[in-house]
Design a protein that fits this description.
Order of helices and strands: HHEHEHEEEHEHEHEH
Protein name: Amidase domain-containing protein
GO molecular function: catalytic activity
Oligomer: single chain
Domain Amidase: 26-246
Helix content: 25-40%
Number of domains: 1
CATH superfamily: Amidase signature (AS) domain
Strand content: 5-15%
CATH architecture: Alpha-Beta Complex
CATH topology: Amidase signature (AS) enzymes
CATH class: Alpha Beta
Family: Belongs to the amidase family.
Largest sheet: 6 strands, mixed
Number of helices: 8
Length: 248
């Protein structure tokens, strides 16, 4: 079961649907791979394995699953995106003790579509820069050559996917932050069109609201990293759609 990480996401989701593997087995396989590789690449410094296992045990699938339903696939979320109950550091010492009290629209969509979040991936401070290092968690490297950068700013997600810690991971892209780390880590990242993947402002007064304004988001998008175009398409089927919190 620990070798499940080698399989494509499309294959694993098909196995889940056919009940040939359970969500709990996948979370455990993801955890085992994280333990094996994280000391080498520093991709996912925030994890929630026990929470993920509990969600896996309790998961019940809808009678008529929507398009893109993931059936319990473990995924990681870049630490510029809020996941309720998990640290929301943005890679900054300023926010090292902040715990998110809301789920971003993207996270809501993932969980509605049957994904299980297992952790949050490293990013440069506030996502600024085409690399991935910060004073809080340190440097993320590409698993192909651990003396080299994973790129950025979604380098943690790209490295985690490349090494098989998760099958899909979220990222953001303002000027290349999905595409650059994909090229450095040998995976697939696509800057999807504005409005395809929902984002929202979060609660009133949240400091992220300014960066989530329509003017900013005409330039910045949320998206995914995967190990193949087929896996990326699977993830976008899960994420794409409208959301009441996203004006675009």
């Amino acid at each position: 079961m620990q070798q499940l990480w080698r399989l494509p996401a499309v294959t694993v989701v098909d196995m889940l649907q056919r009940q040939q593997v359970t969500p709990l087995q996948l979370v455990e396989a993801s955890e085992a791979r994280w333990k094996e590789t994280e000391p080498l690449i520093n991709a996912m410094p925030i994890t929630c394995w026990e929470r993920a296992k509990e969600k896996a045990r309790q998961m019940q699938h809808p009678a008529n699953p929507p398009r893109g339903y993931l059936y319990g696939l473990p995924v990681a979320v870049k630490d510029l995106t809020a996941v309720k109950g998990l640290p929301f550091t943005r890679g900054s010492l300023l926010y090292k003790d902040v715990i998110a009290d809301f789920d971003d629209a993207l996270v809501q969509r993932l969980e509605q579509q049957g994904a299980i979040i297992v952790g949050k991936t490293n990013t440069p401070e506030m996502g600024a820069g085409s690399q991935t290092y910060n004073k809080l968690f340190g440097t993320t490297v590409t698993p192909w050559d651990t003396s080299k950068t994973a790129g950025g700013s979604s380098g943690g997600s790209a490295a985690a996917v490349a090494v098989g810690q998760v099958w899909l991971a979220t990222g953001t892209d303002f000027g290349g932050s999905l595409r650059n780390p994909a090229s450095y880590c040998g995976v697939v990242g696509m800057r999807n069109s504005v409005g395809v993947v929902p984002q929202d402002e979060g609660p009133d007064g949240d400091e992220a609201a300014a960066r989530s304004s329509p003017a900013w988001r005409l330039r910045s998008v949320s998206g995914l990293l995967a190990r193949s175009t087929a896996d990326l398409a699977l993830g976008l089927d899960a994420l794409a759609g409208t959301h009441e919190g996203d004006q675009l």
